[in-house]
Amino acid sequence: MQLIADSGSSKTDWRFINDDNSIQQLKTNGINPYLISEKELFDGLKIDFKDRQLQEINEINFYGAGCGQQKNKDKLKSVFSDFFNCNQIFIEDDMLAAARASCDTNEGIVCILGTGANACLYDGKNIIERMTSLGYTLGDEGSGAYIGKLTLKAFLENEMPPQLAKEFRISFPDINLENALEQIYQKPYPNRFLAQFFQFALFHQKEKLFFELISKSFQLFLEKSVLKFNENKNLPIHFVGGVAFHANSIMRMVLKHHNLQAGNFMESPIAGLTLYHKNQQS
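The structure assignment produced for this chain is given below.
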């Protein structure tokens, strides 16, 4: 039995590929090695997998945020080895998960646009080039946190049309200047706080303010990533993550403007990852 996982800081999607090729699934809390101790991870696995037959698992492929650093890979591998009693354990970052899910074994340019933003050039087996990802403070153009930040900024600076501002207050009754600054500068996970406002922009994407805001954000993302890859005109551009998935009509328009080829749009990589690993064992 293979066990596959795609994990962020908030949730983890697991897939069990049985020997007869049937598939079972499980959803648990997120596993980010930067944010969780080995004891917390082990104790959490005991709860999450208490009703599962673990002795049949002979290979684990885990993809997650924060798994680009070797020390974090070693940390997770050590806990998984002890808990699952499995020797075949592979830990990779979420960028490779997006690449394998959207490209399988084909070449392509792969972008992640969710709370954050990232992109890479994939040769069908390995990531051969990555964009410079600076995180939500210095970068992440086109991401949920970036678009959410601009949405919040437009509200706080009284740049929304009156009707939109009224709807924003109804949607976020607790948001004011003091509260927003406290959330951003004094509370944990300010990127998640900012990303929540993307949904408001998405819902109102046909309004001139938000259509232009999202379009310009996607334009900036392409300039910081895809347009820097030499192969950008020759390969499909794939997207993984809720932002690109739900605003794909605007992204397709921006891609067309640059004569770029739109590829797959996936909200989550787990289905594509499952198919990739099923094909690998065939």
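Interim note for the steering committee: The radius of gyration is 20 Å. The mean pLDDT is 89.
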